[in-house]
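Discussion board: Methods & Data

I've been asked by a reviewer to show the raw model output for two of the constructs in my manuscript, not just the figures. I'm not sure how much to include, so I'm pasting the format here to get opinions. Each protein appears as its amino acid sequence followed by a line of discrete structure tokens. Is this the kind of thing reviewers expect to see in a supplement, or should I convert it first? Here is construct A:
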Amino acid sequence: MPLPPVGIDLGTTNSVVAYCRYPGAAEIIRNAVGETITPSVIAFDATETPVVGRAAVQTYGFGFRPGAALFKRAMGQSTPFVSIGGRDYTPEDLSALVLSSLAADAAKSLGGRAARAVISVPAYFRDEQRRATLRAAEMAGLDCMQLINEPTAAAIAFKAEFPDESGRVLVFDLGGGTFDVSVLTGGDLSTIIDTRGDPFRGGADWDAVLMGLIAERAADVLDPGALEVPSLQLAMRREAEAAKIRLSTMPRAQVSFSHDGQSVFCEITREEFEAASVGLVDATLELVEEVLDVIGTEPDGIDDVLLVGGSTRMPMIETALTKMFGRPPRKTANPDEAVALGAALLADHIDLDAEGMVGLVAAPPDIADRSGIAAISDIANFSLGIIAVSEDGDAYVNEVMIPRGATLPAEGIKPYRHVFRIGETRQLEAFVTQGEGTGPDDVGFLGLFTLDDLPGAPDGKPCEIEISYNYDASGIGRARARLVGRTDWVEMERQDLDEAALARFDAQPPARSSAEPASILMVFDVSGSMTGPPIDDARAAARRFLESFDPNQVAIGIGVVANRSVILLPPTHDHDEVARVIRTIETGAGNTGYGNQADPFDDIYRCLGGTVGARTAVVLADGIWDNQDKAVGRARRCHSDGIEIVAIGFGSADEGFLNDISSADELSLKVDQRDLVATFGSIAQVVSRRSGLILR
């Protein structure tokens, strides 16, 4: 039987791994020294072999060997975090070592190598940090089934521990190096309303406060400059961590250490520690208030507050939250383990969906089967957008594609007008952003997505491209592109951004074409053969065409033809009125009758002949008109006066006739009725290019 997947809490200061032995019942896997928690610390022995966990703390922590800690805070950075023996280690390299150690511990419990895992990340990890976590998992030989936000994982574990809980639950997750707060709701706590986080605040910052208090005492004993010695700083940090743990259960803690024959003995009280930590506590409460403000509720609108993360053991956290919410927060059985347990439950749930199995064996009668635990829908913690040019063309703006708070996975699609310049690269670029700001300076950049070529896109002519942006279930953004009307999407490749690439946003966008106003007349065949779906599709195509143009730049009119030709609305800049007239188009509209005896070209000539600027008539024909030779002659009079004729036909329309009445080959199209909407969209692009217009 395949081995079950594991859930991993890859923490800043400590990491934990768990799995489901029985369906929906998660348990912690102990490491090689029998502990449930593995310090996220790495030391390198005399042969420069990495050592992970408690042994690393004892060597690196005492300054005996080189190593690294707190590297998760730099996750996503490509620069080396530490260099040992001539080799550089990035944060993801170091994280891979921790993951490898956890996988080895799991192998001993499972009887084989754990190959699949759900790995937790802080809710506020950005795209590059999430991608780095996936790469670290791959380096460790793990198939990451999904990344899960730490508060989301904790909520899953909470629901498993308290299955009858419902309402609104606020998850307060304070770990060793990061802090997140989320609010979940629903009968099964399956909906995350909002989440906020700070990836640079955690228990290590409280350690730093204690180090400051210890340093004040030590300064009275040690020689000047001793406090700057790295080995002494490591000793003080070790003492600070130990004192923090003691102060969580005792009113005071004794601290003692030596340096160069000088001994330091001092006492830190919990009252002193809490007074020095007020700023840190207030910062977490401000984030809680921000979440409550976003979801529009007061503290009494929260039914339960759940403490997650080892740093929530500090009494000052419980005291502050009790004061804010008017009642004590709820504690899980072990706040250090909740995230890993929730990740394991999600891995178990995914495994059930994919393989039809959960865990190793069926649960015995005395163990609850929670394999049916509801999957929690995670949310996008950042808006996903693209940098585009503002409507007036004078600035770059951030256009949000997927709003913050959207349920994952989520996708946003938006059309853009683009020209692949002749003789230049056909590369398509999309600068994708994370954040809610309005401009390039107000957001973070997820990356530059590029596509070397877009099949079917013309050279030197405007074309309409759709860009798709999506967040997957792991909260990672991706981009695709296609031509409008095509079904095949083409994946865009993510590139690293440098300062040179972003520098283009320091200047104004290139000037747009200053085309003079244009007039367009749309004329529709309303003979009897257009009754029913054909006229419905014609109206939809007209609306699509109308939406393509700026009313300040383009005047649009409507005409109909059957036994008679009638101009229902001369070209106007009032596009709302045009839309109203489009809705009235029916067979026989304007008392035209239902036959094919007339053509519209004399009316087109009279309507557009006296106007200035670009002039275009778009004529839709269904079937064969009477007296087509005379219609061709009248159409050519329009050509000679500079009025362009676009001829679109379907049904039994004569292709030769369409070619004769159109002004150019590219302005003559015989199409399927079902393609009318897409065709009018394409014609809008052609008209805009030939007239120098900018599409909306």
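Construct B, same format:
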Amino acid sequence: MVKTKNPPPRRAEEIFLEPLDEALSRRYLAYALSTITARALPDVRDGLKPVHRRILYAMRQMRLNPGGGFKKSAKVVGEVMGNFHPHGDQAIYDAMVRLVQDFSVRVPLVDGQGNFGNIDGDNAAAMRYTESRLTEAASLLLDGIDEDTVDFRETYDGEGKEPVVLPAAFPNLLANGASGIAVGMATSIPPHNVAELIDASLHLIKSPNAQTATLLKYVKGPDFPTGGVCVESAESMEEAYATGRGGFRLRARWTTEDLGRGRYQIVVTEIPYQVQKSKLVEKLAELMQTKKLSLLSDVRDESAEDVRLVLEPKSQNVDAATLMETLFRTTDLEIRFSLNLNVLGADGAPRVMGLREALRAYLDHRKDVLVRRTNFRLAKIAQRLEILDGLLVAYLNLDEVIRIIRYEDDPKAELMKAFKLSDVQAEAILNMRLRSLRQLEEMEIKAEHADLKKEQKALKALLKSEDAQWSRIADELKEVRKAFDPKSPLGRRRTELADVPATEEFDPASLIEKEPVTVVLSEKGWVRTIKGRIDNGDDLKYKDGDRGRFLIPAMTTDRLMLFGTDGKFYTLDVHALPGGRGYGEPIRLSVDLPNDQDIAAAFLYQGGRKLLLASTSGHGFFAPEDDCVATTRKGKQVLNVPAGAEAVVCRPAEGDMVASVGDNRKLLVFPASELPEMSRGKGVQLQKFASGGLSDAKTFDKREGLTWIDRSGRTQTVDGWKTCLGKRAQAGRVAPKGFASSKKFAP
């Protein structure tokens, strides 16, 4: 057995004492800031996250230019990971794959060779099988990076430099969009048409105070790489682009094909952005199998390079537009793409920008790039002019220069002393070749000197005039726009903008095949549906120790209302309930009914009725049935049940009288007008009890009299109920003879 040595004790100066909550909060804040600024949010200037920026810069360093050859993606990933991005190779490759996919980005920045995935959602091949290089668009983003146009910082290991931002010759942020989730914030930016963005930028240069509504005359809306039809209203789009928050409704593009003899089929040629075609087809097939798309008979995927989904209607009498409206409401043939223009500004701080602010930030970045590039060029010109001035001196004094070089021990020092030359000029003269002494070379140097002087004067004038700078930026944008000409395959608009479709009354039940069923809910909460009508449930089978409780005739288009003993209502679609020959499923798989609660009542939603609700504490009220419909599985709290009590009554309110009976068998009858109507609450006291609580309650018509139903389902009349007449909240009298021994109006 090998003995392990104890680690040496820590020195006192290495130990820091601080409260745990402060240490955790400070470290979590550092993590959050790192996630926001170095991972999840793009920069407003070049529209890139650090990983994408590092991929493009590394590929440029590897000379993977658009006109050159391809190299293995694994080599690119290794270069990025080793020099710039100390994270997993798969994360880098996934980011790189997205820059290749023309269905993921509007303007691909990496040109891929091999399997880089498809719109069906299939993954790309391993990085050792694929090859890549930069695209022309990526070259535009990197153009001028060697001319001191942007700042550089040290890489993670301090051995190299990486750009903080790229020069970005076109507004890539809005062109390709972005999505990401940071800590406490997220971003979601749809792609746009580059030519439209450049047109809006040019207008913003001419009119710096242009409003969002004016810019939207140029930027028509999102332009998704997969096309589709955007049906968002103009008012909604203007608000979204003004505030930086909103969303866009995007629909699939479809057409009809005539098959002759009055038959037709629908062909979907473009699907919404980021919707996987294979999953969309699976969803359509599932809805058809579960009979939730009664208007559709078949769906086929006949796609090759282009999308082609064939939808066959069940009946040729069904209008194609009506069928598509149902599909838009129930499938991902229509999505809502959110806009959350949350980006990192030039100062590195995250904030939400509108369209105008984002374009303004991009133009300010281009101005900064122009000024820095101009200063860089002026410095280069100054260096060259210094050398040319020295060479001209040498030509004017050629014999003396030759003598000094030939006979002096230190020709460099003598040249500097004799002609007042700088060290650079003297070195240039000494490095001249003999054949450069011909007269033609002197003329060329004088011409170059004159050209550089002219260029220097123009560049200095450019730096002094802000108008000239903006004019130069406008010219550069116009030149870049030619690469994204709207008539070219890359530049043409793909997403059509259409008016908002007219809102028609749509009944979801029309999608479901209507047929009679019987809902069976057992004592222990197992629910199922059985086809057809069942009047007697004696032949039904249940799990051991269980028995039937509710037997409700229904149609598949109905909705089932459940009233829990906690005072909550739960709503379920009958067609969604489990069917078959088994025992069904526990109701708690469909609704969030607590384990210590039970179902007090179950009935079908009809709408427009009033319900009598009451708890064992004796409190209750009338509630509109429409206000009791729950939209989530968590249910909707309507009756507030006091501690120690539970909800016990939920019946349709029909009649002008209310009858309540307690565990003490005392019956109280009072006018229904004394009970309030509420949407939620504890209610008022129906009946007071010295001991026990409320057992049951119902409403009835005074002219028809009070009745109850025995276990055999026969209706029994309560004779002498008038002796129990009183006011609400009284104790009542002992129920007349003949009333149910169970103290219930129904079994």
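Answer (T.O., handling editor elsewhere):
This is acceptable in a supplement if you add a one-line summary per construct. For B, something like: The chain has four domains: 48-167, 253-332, 367-484, 508-734.
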